[in-house]
């Protein structure tokens, strides 16, 4: 017979598994959506070297998304593959940050968006390297190496653009003012975050904010950029409430699999 303590332990593990599924899926969505956004620059970047760099970063993010989606499918236990989770969920089922779904805009806009996200990802994966979940810790160990490179790349561009011409500085400052309102969402801490952090499986996003702020403020100061005094914070992505941009993007990204389900190359 199964004892009460064994039953309670089993239920506890099941709760953690479902919480971890949602947690992993949210981070998978972040990387998948931003990979799709960055791929829009292929053949359109300012020069050939940057075209290759942005394509490689998009591929890094896509590879990270695939690992997370595959693991999320295992945690869910409904036999959904990474393709199923990427291509057959609706807009309301995606739980990515609003920041990553914002349009590319000009090159300065893309670099500001990338820098804000890269600084967050670097802190996140560094913390998750110590996760008690071996699979998540393994993914984080690979992701942190890529994230550090991405942060150096986007940070260098912010310095070049901020210190460059009057026009490049103006465009970069304008991009920062437009995107800053989406940054607070990265550090909102849900009950899922708290439970997983308490179990040693995840990390509370709020704990990452002080280090993130110090890092981005340092680069902005060196670039001569002013952090906006914008108190209007936008959020909702983690709950499935998105801006008008995500639906249009998913329609483009998912149409082939939805038109021809199960198609293989």
What does this 3D model show about the protein?
By secondary structure, this protein is an all-alpha fold. It has helices at residues 4-39, 48-76, 82-87, 98-101, 107-128, 134-162, 166-179, 191-198, 209-223, 244-259. The protein contains 10 helices and no strands. The longest helix has 36 residues, at 4-39. The N and C termini lie far apart (51 Å). Mean pLDDT is 94; it is low at 2-8.
State the shape: globular
The fourth-level CATH homologous superfamily is: Ferritin, core subunit, four-helix bundle
**Span of the ends, CA to CA:** 51 Å
The number of domains is 1
- Overall helicity: 55-70%
**Using only CA atoms, what is the Rg?**
19 Å
**Which CATH C-level class is it?**
Mainly Alpha
| CATH topology call | Ferritin
Task: Count the E strands.
Answer: 0
Q: Give the helix/strand class.
A: mainly alpha
Strand-helix topology:
Elements: H1 4-39, H2 48-76, H3 82-87, H4 98-101, H5 107-128, H6 134-162, H7 166-179, H8 191-198, H9 209-223, H10 244-259
Helix pairs in contact: 1-2, 1-8, 2-6, 5-6, 5-7, 5-9, 6-9
Descriptors:
265 residues; mainly alpha; Ferritin; 10 helices; 0% strand; globular
